[in-house]
Amino acid sequence: MTIEASGPAAQARRRIRLGMVGGGEGAFIGAVHRIAARLDDHYELIAGALSSTPEKALRSAVALGLARGYPDYQTMAREEAARDDGIEAVAIVTPNDQHAPAAQAFLEAGIHVICDKPVTTTLADAERLRALTRSSGRLFAVTYNYSGYPMVRHARRLVREGALGDIRLVQVEYPQDWLTEPLESTGQKQAAWRTDPQRSGAGGCVGDIGTHAYQLAGFVSGLQPTQLCAELSTFVPGRALDDNVQVMLRYANGARGLLWASQVAPGNENALRLRVYGSRAGLEWQQEQPNHLRFTPFGEAPRTVSRGTASANADAARVTRLPSGHPEGYLEGFATVYGEIAQAIHAAREGRPLPAEVDFPTIEDGIHGVAFIEAAVRSSAAGAVWVKV
Q1: What are phi and psi of 17, to 5 degrees?
Q2: How many CB atoms are closer than 10 A to CB 336?
Q3: Which of 62, 129, 216, 338 is the most exposed place for a label (fewest CB within 10 A)?
Q4: Omega before 118 cis (within 30°)?
Q5: Residues in a beta bridge with 17
Q6: DSSP character at residue 339
């Protein structure tokens, strides 16, 4: 017997034709995005402009077995848009300075954009991309991957349902140690561009991992600060950008926040940690122990919520893949974001509304991140004064 799939349902299930800009030879994050996009079988990577060097771009495309490789993203956007079988979405995984021009090229070509963070190096560019997103009718997603962890989704629902009461305190930190010494002077690719203002933008650590901490705090708490006071420090001699940032935050509801991010804190690998406290309870989540969340109702014994168990709520359960005891982490968090984006693209294919439960960072989240970087840089340059966000 032969089974042939056809009609709207088969069209909706068809893998999304994906392209990639950046992520070629020597890149770290490109492979992460490729694994994440394939994990739940929503995408097929078929085209790429994988490097700023044409020769390397084409060589990388051959190495990955792509159907089509391009010397640059301008050619890719133009030629893919002209094909009946062209890409439907593009993942932009370049250094920061190329995010805005590449995103613009693909939005203008009518192609959905999935962009790494920070979405641009200036707030003006981010706002310009928002206007272009709206006029193009395309999707614009930003891969703040920590928002995809099941226990982060659980925490967000706790806050939304009022389990913590009125939010009073938000504390988030993200210390690393990999830039404790001047690694960029050795020619190490990842360190070199992240410490170069021309490629990274005005923020170093504050843009690279501070934005992750900032987005996570806002995603869970549901709050965006109205003011901040920041001190950006550069501890490694000769380094052009900050490698440590400390920020105080003020929220419109009266809550207060603290954010610390560092890439020069020996003994820390990727120690992202969030704590949120309200009038009724608190919660704590740590990225290096991602499958557990600590919930502390006032006057009661602390509780540990475990991913994949009956203690996890529906928001956590819908993005959980494995039974309890089998860790889900960094790659799966990325894959959840890609999966949510896929749901939105499938909905667009069918001309139907996006399901209410689908949630992924958009250009608005990207704008919040860039606004945070600019405000932190501005505050620190003025002597760590309070500024509006």
Answers
A1: -75, 115
A2: 27
A3: 62
A4: yes
A5: 44
A6: H
Tell how far CA 44 is from the center of its chain. Answer: 21
Residue matched to tokens 């501890």: 235
Supply the DSSP string of 267-285, one letter for each residue: T-SS--EEEEEESSEEEEE
The 10s digit of each residue's pLDDT in 109-148 is 999 999 999 999 999 999 999 999 999 999 999 999 999 9
Instruction: Quote the tokens at residue 95.
Output: 């250094």
Torsion of CA 170, 118, 42, 52, to 10 degrees: -160
CB 167 within 8 A of CB 140: no
**At a CB cut-off of 8 Å and minimum separation 6, what does 249 contact?**
170, 225, 227, 228, 256, 257, 258, 259
CA distance 171 to 260: 9
The 3-state DSSP class for residue 295 equals strand
pLDDT in tens, 169-214: 999 999 999 999 999 999 999 999 999 999 999 999 999 999 999 9
Residues 13/19, Cβ–Cβ less than 8 Å? no
Q: Supply the Cα-derived Rg of the chain in whole angstroms.
A: 21
Model confidence pLDDT, tens digit, residues 215-248: 999 999 999 999 999 999 999 999 999 999 999 9
Fill in the amino acid letter for 155. A
Q: What is the pLDDT of residue 319?
A: 97
Name, in order, each residue with C-beta under 8 angstroms of 229's C-beta and a sequence gap of 6 or more.
247, 248, 379, 384, 385, 386, 387
How far is 341 from 148, CA to CA, in rounded Å? 11
Percent of residues, the chain, with pLDDT higher than 70: 97
Burial zone of 184 (CB within 10 Å; 0-12 exposed, 13-18 middle, 19+ buried): buried
Question: What is the rounded CA–CA span in Å between residue 243 and residue 210?
Answer: 10
- Residue written as tokens 């250009």? 363
HSE-CB of 10 using CA atoms within 13 angstroms = 5
Which residues, 6 or more positions from 369, have their beta carbon under 8 angstroms from its beta carbon?
117, 118, 119, 142, 144, 211, 214, 215
Question: Residue 165 has which token pair?
Answer: 């009461």
The Cα–Cα gap between 243 and 236 comes to 8
Token readout for 199 is 């490629």
Of 171, 209, 175, 173, nearest to 190 (Cα)? 209
CA–CA separation, 145 vs 360, rounded Å? 9
